[in-house]
Specification:
Helix content is 65%, strand content 0%. The protein is built from ten helices and no strands.
């Protein structure tokens, strides 16, 4: 399979001259810490899972606050977890950070044919698309890649927050032509919550973020 075209890099020569160096430095630091720090040397993918979850939620908190400096710090902590897992895998010969980067780069190129034309298609030949059309194309390509699924819900992490899990499940079932009937007037609280998620999905609203924003607004200053 030929290597995909790489996205254009910034033209700033100073930026180009240093591009990637901090990332390589972080990789070297992580390798040394694994070799010389007893605690870090003991960690496994499983033992690190809780920290990945914690750093993800702290990053979400930084996004909600709108504090750029805080977000930069939390993204660094989250990036560290990616490097940590990659170095652990590298030591066992499973894969390394380059494999991770190659995989996600190839996926982004493959799932965005409106930006990276497939072989044989001239640049600009694809009709312009709005965000909704791009998302539909993304989901269609993703579904083709996951053709081995035995259930419409395969691949949705069960550990997702409940509202997000419900939203993704409803979306996946709808795409499979299996809409779920919900009852907003049901005496069962879970059924009513699912109906609210369905309402949010139909309106194009992220129910998880909507609830976070509302809770933050009601508790600000307390």
């Amino acid at each position: 399979m030929p290597e995909p075209d790489r996205p254009d890099r910034p033209d700033d020569p100073d930026r180009a001259a240093t591009s990637g160096e901090p990332l390589l430095e972080l990789l070297a630091v992580m390798r040394r810490l694994r070799a010389e720090c007893p605690w870090k040397a003991e960690q496994t993918h499983r033992s690190l899972a809780r920290y990945l979850l914690e750093e993800t939620h702290e990053t979400l908190e930084a996004i909600d606050t709108g504090d750029a400096a805080h977000l930069r710090e939390e993204l660094g902590d989250l990036l560290l977890q990616v490097y940590f897992h990659a170095v652990v895998a590298e030591e066992s010969g499973a894969f390394d950070l380059d494999d991770v980067a190659r995989g996600i780069t190839a996926k982004m190129v493959r799932r965005n044919p409106h930006v990276f034309p497939p072989p044989g298609q001239a640049p600009g030949a694809a009709p312009p698309q709005d965000a909704a059309a791009v998302n539909e194309a993304w989901e269609a390509i993703k579904a083709e890649e996951k053709s081995a699924r035995t259930s419409a819900l395969d691949g949705i992490a069960p550990t997702l927050p409940a509202l997000l899990y419900a939203d993704k499940a409803l979306d996946r079932l709808a795409r499979a032509g299996r809409p779920v009937a919900t009852d907003a007037g049901s005496p069962d609280l879970g059924e009513r919550l699912l109906a609210l998620v369905a309402e949010a999905h139909a309106a194009g609203v992220d129910p998880e973020q909507a609830l976070r924003d509302t809770v933050r607004a009601h508790t600000r200053g307390h």
